[in-house]
Design a protein that fits this description.
This protein is an all-alpha fold and about 300 residues long. It has helices spanning about 1-15, 20-25, 25-50, 60-90, 90-95, 100-105, 110-145, 150-180, 180-200, 210-220, 220-245, 250-260, 275-300, and strands spanning about 265, 270.
Length: about 300
């Protein structure tokens, strides 16, 4: 156990001591933030306000603004957990390229402890960075107004972060085992940074895509996690909006917002509930862990 903890600590330090690596691993989140500040937030706010105009003063502008801040926070968390997790796992590739894996394999530490140390470092780093984003985001949102979150909602957000980190590390570990050079893993990271924001609905709601594209996006656990983030952050705010409207519109206003922005997971034409989304993510993690157990002995140290 001591050797496992030492190797895990070493993998964490490799990531956190490289300031540039930390910044680049948050690149997608930074892009999401900049896009929201420049035009997305106002675009979403204007779109919702346009729908609310028929209801007069029943929908408050502050609630609309808080809704957009919730969208931003869910996108930041969903993207950061993906890129941080992957970037930490690239230590596997660097160790293979520099033949450090031979030194590690020469120690008494067992093979399963080696792969688990890489996996654990990825999960821990993703949890730490995403929890930092979440905490900073909640403080910022609280200064702007209220999302009416309960203590249970906040605890659920942190719990979802753990699940998100596990799913991201489990999904990406088989990929990094296949890479033989840092140039290849770096190229993949570039693609991942550009695509992940669209796949999880951080750049634009997945509901804007075709059903086929929605089903493709739904395959990835990050999409489901981001959808769960969004539901947890915004559901109570929408309930308050609906209560303020008082049933005048038969609930159509809030229902329209949910359909447009909540980005619920759609698999093969079927929209999953939150419970089904959680179950799908857990099953996918289990499948990926089995795949890692099969691939690692065959690919680690292979040149």
């Amino acid at each position: 156990m001591k050797q496992f903890l030492g190797l895990t600590r070493r993998n964490l330090l490799v990531y956190f001591k490289d300031v540039q690596a930390v910044l680049f691993s948050m690149l997608t989140s930074i892009i999401v933030f900049v896009l929201f500040v420049l035009f997305l937030r106002q675009t979403y706010a204007d779109s919702i306000a346009e729908q609310a105009r028929l209801l007069g003063d029943l929908v408050k502008q502050q609630d609309i603004d808080m809704f957009t801040y919730g969208l931003l926070l869910s996108g930041l968390m969903g993207s950061s957990v993906i890129t941080v997790s992957y970037h930490t796992l690239t230590t596997v590739v660097r160790d293979r390229e520099k033949r450090i894996d031979y030194d590690i394999a020469a120690t008494p530490i067992r093979r399963w402890q080696i792969v688990l140390s890489y996996f654990t470092a990825s999960v821990v780093s993703a949890i730490l960075m995403t929890c930092f984003v979440l905490t900073a985001g909640l403080i910022f949102v609280s200064a702007k107004g209220s999302l009416y979150l309960t203590v249970g909602d906040v605890a659920r957000l942190y719990g979802l972060t753990v699940l998100a980190a596990l799913s991201a590390a489990a999904l990406f570990m088989p990929f990094v085992l296949l890479f033989k050079s840092t140039s290849a893993s770096g190229a993949f990271f570039g693609i991942l940074s550009a695509a992940s924001g669209f796949v999880i609905g951080a750049f634009m709601p997945i509901s804007q895509f075709s059903k086929a594209v929605q089903s493709f996006c739904g395959v990835f656990p990050g999409t489901g996690v981001t959808a769960l983030y969004r539901t947890t952050l915004l559901q109570r705010l929408l309930d308050r909006m609906d209560a303020g409207i008082g049933g005048v519109d038969g609930g159509s206003f809030v229902k329209g917002i949910e359909e447009a922005f909540f980005s619920r997971v759609c698999l093969f034409g079927k929209t999953l509930t939150d419970g089904q989304t959680l179950l799908y993510i857990v099953v996918l993690i289990a499948v990926c862990l089995v795949l890692i157990a099969v691939l690692f002995p065959k690919l680690y140290r292979r040149k």
